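Write out this protein's structure.
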Amino acid sequence: MLAGAIRRSSPVTSCLRPALETATFRNPTIWSTLDGLYAKLMRPATAEVSGGMRTRYLGKPFVYPDGTGIGSTISRGVEWDWILRDIVRELLPQESPVVCEVGSNIGASVLQILKARPRARVVCFEPSKRFLPYLEENLRLAGYRDVEVRNLLVGPSRGNHWLYNDATSGSVRDWSHYSERQLVEMTTLDHFWIDRSPIDFLKVDTDGYDFEVLRGGQELLARDHPLIFFELSPHLMQDDPVEGFRWLQSLGYETFCAFAPAGGLLEITLEPSAVIGHAETASHCDVLACQAGLDVASRLKQIRGRAVA
């Protein structure tokens, strides 16, 4: 956290310690703002986007590296993860929800979230040196300058870890099609979110590593009960997805909404096996996990089967 970093910096410790120990600076919102500013000041400058391809997306300029599946899809006029915009609009009524995205890639998904809630307070995690410059550039081109971007891997523990990249994605799994690797810093949601405002919406897309990311945020999930939107890819997972769903159920996540890869709502169910079946049929599906008591069905029924834009 920022406080710890400042206290380790002897030239400023004596000046700022009295202020840091006042009640004002115990406010999570203030700490969140200061922590984000500190990250921007201390993180080495990201390499600028050089070359790449250009198109338009959601009415704004959009850049992407040559060869990426996300970029080529968008260049054909298809909206990537359009379902996120509908979910956020229907289930997050507040104007400035707190949103966390793990695995932001080049920014196509988070731009859908921001399209629905332009004043959302967003933290994006993207560890890949290949995609990070495009994420930051696309946020800038779209006019979202207050999004907090962190060049960190998120997982079940803290430390250093190898990340493997191909043209479209990055993964902690060393699959044969990944052509490069980089050593990155890993954090956990529980560690990162200490002293931050409660989170409302958590989106995870990490190519089979999603449950590991979520397990690193067990305290956060139990405390804040955010809506969780994640990708379920059983063929990429090392553990049985049934165990992951049982763990979510133990934290109070009772209702699961399965979405087709193209975005349409497939089913709202209490049975994890039904969701896993959808994922196995299509190789993967997106899942919205909701706490008990949230009337999801009536809010989402109007988006069932919507065609891809």
